[in-house]
Amino acid sequence: MKKGFVFDLDGVIADTAKFHYLAWKELASSIDITLDEVFNEELKGISRMDSLEKILAFGGKDKEYSITEKECLATQKNERYVALLSNVTQQDVLPGVLSFLEQARQANIPCAIASASKNAPYILDKLRVDDYFVHIVNPDTLKKGKPDPEIFIKAAKAIQVLPCEAVGFEDAQAGVDGLKKAGFYTVGIVKNQPLVGADLLVRQLDEINFSKLIN
Ligand code: BG6
Ligand code: MG
Fold it and tell me: What is the residue range of 34's domain?
C-alpha cells in the first residue's frame, strides 16, 4: 500500500520546462552558444547554476567567465524565465493533474514537491495548486541535487512515509535516477523524451488507475 506521493514540478505539474528551455536558449545565444532539444534533456531536474555550467561546457566556454559573471548570467536567465511565467494560470496545470491531486486528497494521501526550482512556491501559487501540497523541499537545504536521492528522501521524511511506501513522479532522467536510488516506486512522465528505469511510463496522470497504483 502506498501512503505518500512526491512530485517534481517542471514538466510534471505544469509545462514550465518549455519556459526554462526558451530562457536558457536565449541566454546561451547571447553568448554565442546554440542549444538544442537533445542537449536540453540534460538540463532537466538540474539546478540553475549547474545548468549554466553544463551550457558553458557544452559551448566550450567554461573557462571564460568569473563566478560573478556566471551569477550575472544565471540572474539574467531567471529574470527572463520569471517574465515568461507571468501569464501562467491554473489553465496551465497539465491534463490529469488536478483530478489526480483531488483523488489523493480524498484518499488522505499526503503530497510533497521535490523540485530543484527556487521558483517552485511562486509557480504553485500561480497555478492555484499550493493547497494540495503539505511540503515543498527547499532546494537551498540540499547538499547535492538530482540525480542524488537526497531531495526525495527529504520529501518522504516531511510527509512521514518511507520511500518504499511512496510514489514519485518525474519527467527528467536525473529525477527518475534519484527516485530509484531513494527506493520509490517511480512514475515517469514522457512527452517525446526518452526516460529509462521508471516503473511506469505515462504521458499524463489521468492514464493512471489510482487504486491500482496505491494498492
Ligand atoms: C528544475 C528544472 O525543476 O529546476 C530545471 O527541471 C531548472 O530545468 C531547475 O534549471 C532550477 O530552476 P530555477 O527556477 O531555480 O532556476
Ligand atoms: Mg521536471
Answer: 16-85
Is the CB of 119 within 6 Å of ligand 1?
yes
**What residues does the ion ligand 2 have nearby, CB within 5 Å?**
8, 10-11, 171-172
Q: Which ligand is nearest to the CA of 13?
A: 2
ipTM summary value: 0.98
Which of 51, 66, 85 terminates a domain? The answer is 85
Q: Is 146 in the pocket of ligand 1 (CB under 6 A)?
A: no
- The verdict on 187 and 98 lying in the same domain is yes
Per-residue pLDDT tens digits for 38-58 = 999 999 999 999 999 999 999
What pLDDT is recorded for position 187? 98
Concerning whether 10 is annotated as a catalytic residue, the answer is yes
**Residue 62 known to be catalytic:** no
Residues above pLDDT 90, as percent of the chain: 98
- Contact 170/45 with Cβ under 8 angstroms? yes
Q: Which three cell numbers stand for residue 210?
A: 489510482
Contacting residues for 107 by C-beta, under 8 A, at least 6 apart: 210, 214
Q: Are 183 and 195 spatial neighbours (Cβ–Cβ below 8 Å)?
A: no
Answer whether residue 193 shows pLDDT above 90. no
